Amino acid sequence: MKLPVSTEWLLHCAASLAQLEAGATASATQLAQYFDVPAAYLAKQLQSLVRGGVLAATTGPRGGFRLARDAARITLLDIVEAVDGASDPYECREIRQRGRGALSPEECRSPCILARKMAEAHDAWRQSLAATTLADIVAAIPASAPARTRARLTGAP
Amino acid sequence: MKLPVSTEWLLHCAASLAQLEAGATASATQLAQYFDVPAAYLAKQLQSLVRGGVLAATTGPRGGFRLARDAARITLLDIVEAVDGASDPYECREIRQRGRGALSPEECRSPCILARKMAEAHDAWRQSLAATTLADIVAAIPASAPARTRARLTGAP
DNA sequence: GGCCCGGTACTCGGATACAGTTTGTCCGAGTCCAAGCGG
DNA sequence: CCGCTTGGACTCGGACAAACTGTATCCGAGTACCGGGCC
User: Fold this and answer.
1) pLDDT tens across A2-49, in order?
2) For residue A15, what are the contacts with CB-CB under 8 A and spacing of at least 6?
3) Would you kindly state where each structural domain of chain B is located, as residue ranges?
4) Quick one: DSSP state of residue A4?
5) Helix then strand then coil, % of chain B, to nearest 5
6) What domain of life (chains A, B) (predicted)?
7) Distance between CA A70 and CA A76 in Å, rounded?
8) Nearest by CB to B101, which of A3, A34, A129?
9) With an 8 Å Cβ cutoff, are A2 and B98 in contact?
10) Which of A2, A7, A125 sits opposite B124 (nearest CB)?
11) Subunit contact B3:A140, Cβ cutoff 8 A
């Protein structure tokens, strides 16, 4: 089980976008320079967030990415699942119905107890991530940070 | 984020071994036939559980795998982490210290808030899995199952 | 008959190929801004 | 001087290759059992 590296990038990107003024945008190039990561690949991953409804993108000059809705309405889970997919990492393939020890279909009416326990753990993980919003993140950093972030994102030295 | 398919195999293998009489063993071949999975690959993965201290292996005829300790002392987390590794799927690479928006080292004394939230979620997942033992699994299945499992594992038609 | 010895078959264990996903890169479609031209 | 047109540059979006982890397989090392031979 391993999360892509881009997950970290996008979490930080979203947190940075949350520090912008309402309506302001940042381009993929600006974000890539801000974090020193491959611009093209970052752009590709940002599209995942757009598809996931977390970010909104506008093309053309002065365009870029911005949060699709208020920072208080975007949870860390939204971001992670948009990047990495929302499927349970544990996939029950009904192994109990195969091979020499196959169970009869009647015995498999209720889902496998192991799959259920794994799903519960996944839910615990999801709930933990869903408990934090981008607004919480912004509130946790120093009050002077947003102004600096905005300045450095737009490119002024 | 995706868990290997073998995770399901080994969870079921461990659950089956927990249904054996104390001291009894089952070989990789028997388990593979029981679940209809590639025997060689299953054997390789069972080694992970041996290295993780979950199973004990004895070579030679009548040999095979058995639980390394009492089923009540083996949690699902022990198995999953033995197979898949115990590292946090989210790896903080301190992206905040790189690029144009790099923070000063003093500001990075405390760990990144995002990494902390992700670690909390991982802990919630771990705790959920650690709450269930193999003994709990065995207790949840019908009382008649262990006898049948033993019969079908050993190969009697 | 009991004990020792050797062969055999079965077990795990690690080293070795194949495939799918993640990572990284590229170029094209669309759009807004700005300058230049005409009225 | 003002408005329209046209060019340009900048943006995202999807299509196209390399690298790494997970998947699958094989053969070798070791060990307990079983049969035969010897005392």
Assistant:
1) 899 999 999 999 999 999 998 899 999 999 999 999 999 999 999 999
2) A134, A137, A138, B114
3) 6-152
4) -
5) 55, 5, 40
6) Bacteria
7) 13
8) A34
9) no
10) A125
11) no
Please report which confidence band the pLDDT of residue B26 belongs to, taking 50, 70 and 90 as the band edges.
very high
Assess whether B98 (CB) lies less than 7 A from strand C: no
Using CA coordinates, name the residue in chain B closest to A94. B8
- CATH class assigned to A6-154: mainly alpha
Coil, helix or strand for B15?
Answer: helix
Instruction: Collect all residues with Cβ–Cβ distance below 8 Å to B84 and sequence separation of at least 6.
Output: A1, B3, B4, B7
Whole-number Å distance, CA A37 to C1' D17? 19
Mark yes or no for CB contact A129/B152 under 8 Å.
Answer: no
> Residue B56, CA: closest nucleotide via C1'?
C12
Q: Is the CB of B63 under 7 A from strand C?
A: yes
Q: Let me know: does B28 contact B66? Beta carbons within 8 Å.
A: no
Among all strands, which nt has the closest C1' to A25 (CA)? D11
Rounded-to-integer distance, Cα B102 and Cα A19, Å: 16
Within B18-133, residue ranges assigned H as helices are: 28-35, 39-51, 76-84, 113-130
Contacts of B52 (CB under 8 A, 6+ apart): B78, B79, B81, B82, B83
Instruction: DSSP for B107-142, please give it.
Output: GGSSPPHHHHHHHHHHHHHHHHHHT-BHHHHHHHS-
What number does CATH give the domain B6-152?
Answer: 1.10.10.10
Q: How far is the CA of B44 from the C1' of C14 (A)?
A: 9
pLDDT digits (tens, 9 = 90+) for A80-104: 999 999 999 999 999 999 999 999 9
Residues of A in contact with B114 (CB under 8 A): 8, 11-12, 15, 76, 137
